[in-house]
Design a protein that fits this description.
The chain is α/β, with parallel strands linked by helices. Helices cover 52% and strands 12% of the residues. The chain contains 15 helices and 8 strands. An 8-stranded mixed β-sheet has the order 3-2-1-4-5-6-7-8, with helices on both faces. β2, α2 and β3 form a beta-alpha-beta unit.
Length: 333
């Protein structure tokens, strides 16, 4: 039986572990939280992040990260971007040689403005074999074996084919792309656009307005993809339009829920305290604001979300500014 490592006991890391276990693969699941690891060992449930999903015995919770990454050729990392560098730094001495990395993180690191694949290479000081697995996929749905399809971004097609053999089954399908950078930008920026759509919902705006922001938000995603040398057409696939629609409209979206509460006039600190989570969009919007300033980018929706979160603008103020802009051409590449 093949053995792989999954870094991160959160909902998505645990869901990917269930997929791999369903494919008869043993998973060494690294858990930062010792209590969660113990809970999984005893009850076979991750009651903190993915309750009501029984975890197969092939999923082995491990708190020693050196042990978790030992004797495996595949490492699936599901670490929030905010903490990714710290975790990779911890294991760089023994997790480089003969390891293939599968990136599940979504976001842009603040200050460095690096995407997850770039963070890993920056820490290791070499370009390691890697793939990104990104797209419209709720952890809960995947863990319950609902049909799910995502983008598998690679630089090496042979690596991609090997990974498809590990992952694909009768309820999960990965579609190959040769645009790692574009896929990561789509996965990151859709969270920011989702915050805007959630704000509209919370403020009582209609579906017409939401469709407007969703579509124009896609053009901003394309602008940022090109900044990272990604391909615009990538954003029309699962990791772009697919992920954007699911996150902005889906009932399980944490970014949408936080946006909705902001649209109702609640303060961010209170929202985060009550929900108990910080959606990736909140971190990413700060990185995008840095990109806007550093490169003089025209991204009115992303910039507006940043201003609203920081109390410098209202959602109605953002809409007024958008409607006052000079006439523009649609779908410019």
């Amino acid at each position: 039986m093949k053995t792989v490592c999954v870094l991160g006991e959160g909902a998505w890391g645990t869901a990917i572990a269930t997929l791999l276990a369903s494919n008869n693969i043993e998973v060494q699941l690294w858990c930062y939280d010792k209590n969660i690891a113990e809970d999984i060992k005893i009850s076979r449930y991750n009651n903190r992040y993915l309750p009501n999903v029984y975890l197969d015995a092939k999923i082995k919770p491990i708190t020693d990260i050196a042990k978790a990454t030992k004797n495996v050729s595949w490492i699936f990392e599901a670490i929030p971007v905010k903490f990714l560098r710290k975790v990779i730094e911890e294991i760089k001495q023994y997790a480089v040689n003969e390891k293939n990395w599968v990136i599940l993180s979504k976001g842009i690191e603040q200050d460095t403005l690096l995407l997850p694949s770039q963070i890993i290479d920056d820490v290791f000081k070499i370009s390691v074999p890697k793939a990104v697995l990104l797209g419209p996929s709720y952890a809960q749905d995947l863990a319950h074996k609902e049909i799910t399809a995502v983008t598998l971004g690679v630089n090496d097609c042979m690596l991609g084919y090997s990974l498809q053999e590990l992952l694909n089954n009768d309820y999960f399908r990965s579609y190959l792309s040769l645009d790692i950078m574009g896929a990561q930008v789509g996965a990151a920026i859709k969270n920011v656009i989702t915050l805007a759509v959630g704000m509209l919902d919370g403020a009582g705006h209609t579906d017409n307005v939401k469709a407007f922001i969703l579509t124009r938000g896609l053009t901003e995603m394309i602008t940022l993809a090109k900044l990272y040398n990604g391909r615009p057409e990538t954003l029309y696939g699962l990791c772009g339009v697919g992920d954007l629609v699911l996150t902005a409209m889906g009932k399980l979206s944490k970014n949408r829920e936080v946006g909705r509460r902001l649209g109702k006039g609640q303060k961010l600190e209170k929202i985060l305290d009550e929900t108990g989570y910080i959606p990736e969009g909140i971190n990413t919007v700060n990185s995008v604001h840095q990109l806007i300033e550093n490169h003089n980018l025209d991204l009115p929706i992303c910039n507006g979300v940043y201003q609203i979160i920081n109390g410098k603008q209202s959602i109605d103020g953002l809409l007024t500014l958008l409607m006052q802009r000079p006439p523009e051409q649609d779908c410019v590449f």
